[in-house]
Amino acid sequence: MLIGELAALSGLSHDTLRFYERQGLLHALRTAKGYRRYAPEAAARLTLIRLAQGLGFSLAEIREVLGQMDALQAGGLDAVQVQALLQGKLAQIDARLDELRSLRAQLADQLARACPLRLQVEQG
Prior knowledge:
Elements: H1 3-10, H2 14-22, E1 29-30, E2 36-37, H3 42-54, H4 59-73, H5 79-114, H6 116-123
Antiparallel strand pairs: 1-2
Helix pairs in contact: 4-5
């Protein structure tokens, strides 16, 4: 599919798609006239990229995971190697979730202490 089709399908701009390509996150073949042609899987790849970004992953982290997945598909890594790499990433996500739960608990505690209704009751 051409860049316009992928942009319409993904809801991303042409500039964003070109940026992702420059960053090594997205791959396109070039036609004889120089047009970018993306594989049908590009839309799913973009969904993964956007989800990971939304969860706070850097483009470098996303590129690393996508590179591992690409290497597996190209036969450069075996399934056991990719599984180990992805398990490491899952461990990082679990650690981040633990940190977020702790932060949430601290914020909820601060909110409970600063609750305007609680302050009115204590002053009255």
